[in-house]
């Protein structure tokens, strides 16, 4: 989908999302893997962002757009619901985000290398 603005208000199920590192901010970011442009922002639960980087999710997403009155404000974004972790995508070893202690907003993170437990 090249222009998500044409689909504001529509929902899409079974969209694959991936947890990635963003060069511009410390917190991990979720981006679409398929269907939508990779640079499209995703509204996603903070608790699920603390999985290993590279973990993928299947979700229903809704294309959203903020407005001031009737005028669109900012770019469109995706709101993820009905989220399921794709277990086979969880790396055996990798970076995991943890909230940075002592921050006022609680939105700053540090990363540490970790292993997942054997299943």
Sequence-ordered SSE layout with sheet pairings:
Layout: E1 11-20, E2 29-32, E3 42-43, E4 56-68, E5 71-85, E6 93-99, E7 109-115
Parallel strand pairs: 3-5
Antiparallel strand pairs: 1-2, 1-4, 4-5, 6-7
Protein architecture, described:
- With 119 residues, the protein is an all-beta fold.
- The chain has a single domain, classed as Beta Barrel (OB fold (Dihydrolipoamide Acetyltransferase, E2P)).
- It is 0% helix and 49% strand.
- It contains no helices and 7 strands.
- Strands 2-1-4-5-3 form a 5-stranded mixed beta sheet, with no helix packed on it. It has a two-stranded antiparallel ribbon with strand order 6-7.
- It is globular and about 45 Å long.
- The chain starts with 10 loop residues before the first strand and ends with a strand.
What summary fits the major beta sheet?
5 strands, mixed
Q: Could you state the order of secondary-structure elements as H and E?
A: EEEEEEE
Strand composition percent = over 45%
**Assembly form of the protein:** single chain
CATH class: Mainly Beta
Distance between the termini: 37 Å
Question: What structural class results from the helix and strand content?
Answer: mainly beta
What ranges have pLDDT less than 50 throughout 5 or more consecutive residues? none
Please give the count of helices: 0
Broad shape: globular
Under CATH, the topology can be stated as OB fold (Dihydrolipoamide Acetyltransferase, E2P)
How are the strands of the biggest sheet laid out side by side?
2-1-4-5-3
Would you tell me the overall average pLDDT? 85
Number of strands: 7
Architecture per CATH nomenclature, i.e. the level-2 architecture: Beta Barrel
Level of helix content? under 10%
Number of domains: 1
Rg estimate, integer Å? 15 Å
């Amino acid at each position: 989908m090249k222009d998500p603005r044409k689909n504001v208000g529509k929902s899409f199920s079974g969209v694959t999302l991936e947890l990635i590192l963003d060069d511009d901010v410390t917190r991990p970011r979720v981006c679409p893997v398929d269907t939508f442009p990779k640079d499209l922002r995703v509204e996603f639960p903070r608790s699920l962002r603390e999985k290993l980087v590279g973990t993928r999710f299947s979700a229903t997403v809704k294309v959203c757009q903020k407005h001031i009155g009737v005028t669109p404000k900012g770019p469109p974004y995706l709101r993820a619901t009905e989220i399921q972790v794709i277990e086979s995508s969880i790396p055996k070893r990798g970076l995991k985000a943890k909230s940075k202690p002592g921050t006022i907003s609680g939105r700053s993170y540090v990363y540490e290398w970790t292993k997942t437990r054997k299943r």
